[in-house]
Each structure stands twice: as C-alpha cells, then as structure tokens.
C-alpha cells in the first residue's frame, strides 16, 4: 500500500514545475514582459534613489 501512495505522489506537479512549462508555450512578448518587468522596476527605483541622493548632497554646500 505505501508503494502505491508514494508512486501517485511522484506524478503530481508543483506550481513551480507548471510555470517552467509555460515559458515555452504562449506569446514570447508576454513572457519577456513578465520576466523583465521586475528588473525594470528595480532599476527605476535605484535611479530615483540616486537622483534624490544627488539633490540632498547638492544642498550641503562647500563649507
């Protein structure tokens, strides 16, 4: 009995495994946007931080 239950549990896929299959199916454009959007948001946040940091450093003056 325990062999049968372990065999059936091996054939189920986790959500992570199902997502791996979806990368090769569907629209390439949608996949690229979905994968690059977090990186674009992160780069925008770093740029914004640098811009605000530069502004505050410019207020320090020369003295």
Query: Helical element count?
Result: 3
Query: What is the total number of structural domains?
Result: 1
Query: Could you tell me the mean pLDDT?
Result: 80
Strand elements, count: 0
Distance between the termini: 81 Å
Principal-axis shape? elongated
Stretches where pLDDT falls below 50 for ≥5 residues? none
Query: Which structural class do the helices and strands define?
Result: mainly alpha
How much helical structure, as a percent, in the residues?
over 70%
Q: Strand count, sense and closure of the main sheet?
A: none
Radius of gyration equals 24 Å
Estimate the strand proportion: under 5%
Order of helices and strands: HHH
Protein name: MATE family efflux transporter
Organism: OM182 bacterium BACL3 MAG-120531-bin86
Keywords: Membrane, Transmembrane, Transmembrane helix
Write up this protein.
Keywords: Membrane, Transmembrane, Transmembrane helix. The protein has helices at 2-10, 15-22, 28-58. With 63 residues, the chain is an all-alpha fold. It has one domain. The longest helix is centred in the last third of the chain and has 31 residues, at 28-58. The termini are far apart. The relative contact order is 0.06. The mean pLDDT is 80.
């Amino acid at each position: 009995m325990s062999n049968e239950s372990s065999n059936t549990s091996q054939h189920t896929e986790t959500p992570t495994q199902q997502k791996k299959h979806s990368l090769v199916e569907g629209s390439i454009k949608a996949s690229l946007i979905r994968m690059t959007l977090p990186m674009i948001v992160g780069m925008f946040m770093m740029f914004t931080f640098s811009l605000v940091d530069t502004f505050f450093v410019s207020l320090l003056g020369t003295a």
